[in-house]
Amino acid sequence: MLSGMKVTRAKHKRAHLGDHRWDGVEVLEYKSEGSAPFRDVTRQVLFADPELAAQWRYFEVAPGGHTTLERHRHVHAVMVIRGRGRCLVGEEVHDLHLHDLVSIPPLTWHQFRAADDEPLGFLCLVNSERDRPQLPTEEDLLELRRNPHVAAFIRTGEAGTAG
Questions:
Q1: Domains: count for the chain
Q2: Catalytic status, residue 124
Q3: Which of 41, 63, 72, 131 could form an SS bridge with 30, CB 3.0 to 4.6 Å?
């Protein structure tokens, strides 16, 4: 809790506590340790009500960190709300700034990276019921790396590390 701030639990409201944290919302590991390659990422599930068809999450990538290179059948809708960074969507690498919107189509390789000097925080809207992410095979990586911009961008090292 922030110093001197009294937080009360309301049934329908969760107060913003500062620094992109909310009352009653747990800061979780991005993925289970060793499940996929990533570096310095946290996840918060903001809304996951069974009555909603969607889940709304906040991800934060620490400076120099990155999410997993992955794809899946479900769509992602992303809005940057903190810092800056870059993202891969298919074969395109984009700079990301505050309030930028990113649409991730089905079965499209994607990855997010924070700038080296500040975090990248983004809201992510997905279907509540969705498939599991697919990691790239060696063949997929060879194909992705044919594009020099993609090859320079992607990180595929050991889980929890860069590489």
A1: 1
A2: yes
A3: 41
